[in-house]
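Reminder: ligand-aware prediction takes two inputs, not one.
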Amino acid sequence: MSTITRISISLEEELLDKFDAFSEEQGYPTRSEAMKTVIREALVREEWTEGSHVAGAISMVYDHHKGDVVRKLLVAQHDFCGEILCSQHVHLDHTNCMEIIVLRGAGERIRKLLTRLRRIKGLKHITLSMSTTGEHLN
Ligand code: NI
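Here is what comes back for the chain with nickel (II) ion:
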């Protein structure tokens, strides 16, 4: 259990009002909880830029009838099997599939996979959720 330290910061009143409105809108119970989340977000972003060991997920929506999109997605994923922990395929309807790939590894490798997948014709949407292994956050 880590020690909690009380700090005081100086902010312009308008900025604090905006932060409090944001915190309320997002459902944080206290200003401190909202602030912790913002700090953690910044630290996770930093993990991704400094190329450390990260975790995340790529989600994609595609029409499985289009070209050889399914085969190309499969081949790309096999080339990154060291980073892929698991994947989930959901048949959204007769045409559309959603696939979610959970990843852990070097940020550059995960970005490389994202670029490779993005180049595949037939994808309707692809997004990367940049998260953390949690090792360096408490
Ligand atoms: Ni499907």
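The two ends are 9 Å apart (CA to CA). The domain at 13-49 is CATH 1.10.1220 (Arc Repressor Mutant). We will return to this case in the review session.
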